[in-house]
Amino acid sequence: MNGTVSIAWVLARRELRARYRESILGLSWLLILPLLMASLYTLVFWGVFQARWPAAAEIAAPGGAQQALMFGAKLFAGLSVFQFFADLLSRATRSITDNAPLVKRLQFPVAALVLGQVISGAVSLCISLACCVVVASAFFGLSPNFFLLVILIFVCCVIGYGFALILAALSTYLRDLQQVTPALMGALLFVSPVFYPSSRVSGILGTLVELNPLSIPIELTRAAVFSEPIAVSGYSQSTLPLYSFVALMICGFGIWFFGRLKSGFADLI
């Protein structure tokens, strides 16, 4: 296990460096791209559709620039969590097929390929959430709940690793998943409480949001960053322990499932 983690760290560093090696701004793109997306979504949802967060009016003047900044910052926090899962799961579908020379080595811990993607994704998530914390503290005088935030990042990594292992194994046998997963994640964005609080939706959309496994970490992360009671997100104090237990179960199943299928990887790539 220690060898797998060590190799995963090396792979994560190599991936982050290779992704931005030839760019002028380098690793700054980890923050710039999500900020650009959040700015665009803020312009559309806050400016055009007049969307608002329930607690924003209590902190910022109604209709003012501060309220727009609050909306954008909350959207950015939720988008950062969603993007962590979207990028991880989309890349996981190609993690085995794109690394055939490594997979065919008998002594190579194949799971390290997926774990490396989790680590690199966690780095991006931490950078984005750090930006949200700075905005919340500097512009609104809020004191983020760092303890809750650290737990949530860890839980996101745990459940993300489990889902990524499952997809990595399945997509090696079913290559169609490499095309389907990015499209599904694009659709999942709009049934995730990124642009709206889950407490504001009902009917079929409300049911889909409740069933969405990304809803809880998105809402609780937003509450942690902006120092809001968990009840504001529509969840209770028992939500995080229960979700953490489910995350561990999914991670355990993912490890078992990946282990059952990995013997056939070398023959399929």
Average of per-residue pLDDT values: 85
Helix content: over 70%
Number of distinct beta strands: 0
* Classification by helices and strands: mainly alpha
Q: How many domains, as an integer? A: 1
Note the quaternary state here.
Answer: single chain
Helix count equals 12
- Sequence of secondary-structure elements: HHHHHHHHHHHH
Unreliable residue runs: none
From the spread of the alpha carbons, the general shape counts as globular
Radius of gyration: 19 Å
Distance between the termini: 25 Å
**Residues in β-strands, percent:** under 5%
Main beta-sheet strand count, sense and barrel state: none
Describe the structure concisely for a colleague.
This protein has 269 residues and is mainly alpha-helical. It has helices at residues 2-19, 29-48, 56-59, 65-92, 100-103, 111-140, 146-173, 177-188, 203-211, 215-225, 239-261, 265-268.
General description of the model:
- 37% of the residues are buried.
- This protein has helices spanning 2-19, 29-48, 56-59, 65-92, 100-103, 111-140, 146-173, 177-188, 203-211, 215-225, 239-261, 265-268.
- Helix 7 (146-173) runs parallel beside helix 11.
- The model has no long low-confidence stretch (mean pLDDT 85).
- The chain is globular.
- It has one domain.
- It is built from twelve helices and no strands.
- The chain starts with a helix and ends with a helix.
